[in-house]
# Entry
Amino acid sequence: MRYFLIVTALVFASVTAASACSGVKDYPKAIKALESNQHLSAEQKDILMKDLMAGKSMHDEGYKTGDMSKMGQSLKILRSVKSRIKNQ
# Structure
């Protein structure tokens, strides 16, 4: 049982780290998508850009310190902003 829990924890940690690293590519893509979006007002773009920058900063800090929690939170921000960009 102990072995199973250890293996499960290691697999979860590696999956979390791999998905968190997607932020390295996805944040720049989201920034470009936001900048080229013609359906959002300037005010909406400013708000979303601030959210993106906060998430990117959190991701970078989590990446530097190995804080998986920060990287996970940053990806939630990224997914939220990306959905708001697409839904407009």
User: Anything to note?
Assistant: The two ends are 49 Å apart (CA to CA). The mean pLDDT is 84. The chain has one domain: 2-86. DSSP finds three helices and no strands in the chain.
